[in-house]
Design goal:
Transferase(Phosphotransferase), domain 1; 10 helices; alpha+beta; Phosphorylase Kinase, domain 1
């Protein structure tokens, strides 16, 4: 096994599956998963995530516990994350950004149809594979989110890509992912976080009051992204409605 990377949730390794195919194995930090009850909950969440249709997502192949190590195995997607690609090559524009938007919102549509809320949709969780964008970590973020009460000390997610309700510690649903998707599309178009801030209070103020400039977006995306960034989750469209708006 070769380590691909590590982060706040755990470490990711490249390995071979039973059929010789390449797979990604994420081993979670023990502090995140806690005791036996929480681990069982995680495995139930991971099993739910396996029901997500594989279009534009990295399929979840397995999850389990070995010697107190909790792991999740997914399809390996050879390609950089959107975060890395934009950092190295610059923002996306025109047709490439529209294709990115269609693929990722289709992934969210499938994730939500399976009864899952991603809770950590961001540029680092969008991989650009040879056959198009793939959304990852939807089976991990949701499970971990249910293991902790939302507070300033243990918020689950990535601050600039949270929704206003998520950063406020309120209950989040599919509409929260829609807000995070729109923020991610803006990052893809500009190379900058739409809601920047050096601290939790600063980001909180930006998320609940700032309205970013959307003029950089292609016309086909601008209206949809604007609705997705509504501060009130009740005013945001569903993933299916966004896809229809973009493709019609």
């Amino acid at each position: 096994m070769r380590q691909l990377g590590s982060g706040g949730q755990g470490s990711v390794y490249l390995a071979k599956g039973p059929n010789g195919e390449s797979v990604a194995v994420k081993v979670l930090h023990g502090r995140l998963v806690g005791g036996p009850g929480q681990r069982e909950r995680f495995l139930r969440e991971a099993e739910m995530a396996r029901r997500v249709r594989p279009f534009a997502t990295a399929r979840i192949l397995d999850a389990g516990v070995v010697d107190d190590l909790v792991y999740i195995v997914t399809e390996y997607v050879p390609g950089p994350s959107l975060a890395k690609l934009v950092y190295e090559q610059g923002p996306r524009n025109g047709d490439s950004l529209t294709r990115l938007a269609i693929g990722t919102i289709a992934a969210l549509k499938g994730i939500h149809a399976a009864g899952i809320v991603h809770r950590d949709f961001k540029p680092a969780n969008v991989l650009l594979g040879p056959d198009g964008p793939r959304v990852i970590d939807f089976g991990v973020a949701g499970a971990l989110d249910r293991m902790a009460m939302a507070s300033a000390d243990n918020l689950r997610g990535t601050l600039p890509y949270m929704s206003p309700e998520q950063i406020s510690g309120e209950r989040v649903g599919p509409a929260s992912d829609i807000f995070s998707w729109a923020s991610t599309m803006l990052y893809g178009a500009t190379g900058r976080d739409a809601f920047e801030g050096g601290s939790l209070p600063q980001v909180h103020r930006m998320l609940v009051s700032h309205h970013p400039d959307l003029s950089v977006l292609p016309p086909a995306l601008r209206g949809a992204v604007e609705r997705c960034l509504a501060k009130d989750p009740r005013h945001r469209p569903t993933a299916a409605e966004v896809m229809m708006a973009i493709t019609s």
